[in-house]
Design a protein that fits this description.
By secondary structure, the protein is mostly helical. It contains 7 helices and no strands.
């Protein structure tokens, strides 16, 4: 008579779905390997922290209805312009030089998938924000912080999600699933 495990006898065999697949565990990384696999995430987070910091200055001013102490309207508009310029330049560099390399092995960086779609959604709002700031700078419009906040709210959630998602994708534990240490040494960033 065959041995029967009473605990599993008659148990339903769960249908395997993509969500239930367990990825094979990878060996622990040495500190040097972790640094190599994580360097793109660290570099990206450095830039993203600048965007987060600038966003907080602008958004706090809009929420309070007054510019930061000691900052003129001209300076505040300059901060907003720089934010637009830097974010656009950052995304352009990513899309031209970084994402195509990563997309070879990483689905999240392929065209029309999550990270590039987030870029498009961000720039829908950022373009309106930049147009508004430009009109304020030329005097065509008066700067109204409540209007600026409304524009920021139109793309703020996707921007903050994107800043986190991108760094997570570039983190050591994810990068090692797709790239060798040697390949990481040759990355463009």
């Amino acid at each position: 008579m065959a041995d029967v495990n009473v605990e599993t006898a008659g148990a339903a065999n769960p249908i395997e779905s993509p969500e239930s697949k367990v990825e094979p565990s990878l060996p622990k990384l040495s500190p040097a390997e972790h640094r190599m696999y994580n360097h793109m995430a660290e570099n990206m987070d450095y830039f993203h922290n600048h965007f987060r910091s600038t966003w907080k200055v602008m958004y706090e001013a809009c929420s309070k209805g007054k510019r930061p102490a000691g900052m003129s309207i001209k300076q505040f508009i300059g901060v907003c312009e720089q934010f637009c310029h830097h974010l656009t330049m950052h995304h352009t560099i990513e899309e031209m030089h970084i994402f195509p390399v990563l997309a070879v092995k990483m689905p999240a960086f392929k065209k029309e998938l999550e990270l590039l779609t987030q870029h498009k959604l961000i720039h829908q709002g950022l373009d309106k924000f930049e147009d508004y700031i430009s009109k304020c700078k030329t005097g065509e419009k008066d700067l109204r912080l409540d209007e600026l906040k409304e524009l920021m709210d139109s793309f703020g959630d996707v921007l903050w999600t994107h800043l986190d998602d991108e760094v997570k994708q570039l983190g050591a534990e994810n990068m090692r699933k797709f790239w060798s240490i040697d390949e990481m040494r040759r990355m463009p960033m």
